[in-house]
């Protein structure tokens, strides 16, 4: 009987964990030209923001917009960073003054004063549901 009860409890927790997973659907708008790739990073902490994503997606740049989905996310806060890597070199190119030469954006369309926004401005809360974000690329 104890074995049955333990199996039932473990199964209930497993089902709850699966049901508690959410997703973020990101639509990237204002793609300047269908050249290169759109790189989207998903971060789950202030300490790793813009350094180490928990998930990342790379898709071909389209004429005006692309949509990607991050599935299987546990409940919590996630920040988004996006670059339009026009020359496909894997990074955001900048001029000598550090001003980006390629498109970029962040979750909630957040912007920083002199650089990227902080994690809290770019974060989105996920609590077992599907969250959608429309994010507009900016070009300097």
Task: Give me the secondary-structure topology.
Elements: H1 2-19, E1 22-29, E2 37-43, E3 55-60, E4 66-73, E5 76-85, E6 104-106, H2 119-122, E7 123-126, E8 130-136
Parallel strand pairs: 1-8
Antiparallel strand pairs: 1-4, 2-3, 2-5, 5-6, 5-7
- Low-pLDDT runs: 4-17
**Quick one: biggest sheet?**
5 strands, antiparallel
For this structure, what is the CATH class?
Mainly Beta
Please tell me the total number of domains.
1
What CATH calls the topology is: Immunoglobulin-like
CATH hierarchy: architecture: Sandwich
Tally of helical runs: 2
The helicity comes to 10-25%
Q: Give the overall shape, derived from the CA principal axes.
A: globular
User: Which structural class do you get from the secondary structure elements?
Assistant: alpha+beta
Strand percentage: 35-45%
Number of strands: 8
Mean pLDDT: 90
Distance between the termini: 67 Å
Compute the CA-based radius of gyration.
18 Å
Q: Give the SSE string.
A: HEEEEEEHEE
């Amino acid at each position: 009987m104890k074995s049955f009860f333990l199996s039932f409890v473990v199964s209930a927790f497993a089902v709850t964990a699966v049901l508690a997973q959410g997703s973020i659907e990101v639509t990237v708008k204002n793609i300047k030209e269908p050249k290169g790739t759109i790189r989207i990073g998903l971060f789950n902490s202030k300490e790793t923001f813009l350094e180490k994503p928990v998930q990342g997606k790379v898709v071909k740049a389209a004429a005006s917009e692309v949509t990607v989905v991050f599935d299987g996310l546990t409940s919590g806060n996630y920040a988004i960073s996006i670059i339009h890597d026009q020359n496909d070199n894997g990074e955001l190119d900048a001029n000598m003054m550090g001003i980006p030469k390629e498109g970029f954006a962040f979750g909630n369309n957040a912007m920083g004063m002199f650089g990227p926004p902080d994690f809290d401005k770019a974060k989105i809360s996920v609590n077992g549901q599907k969250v959608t974000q429309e994010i507009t690329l900016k070009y300097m």
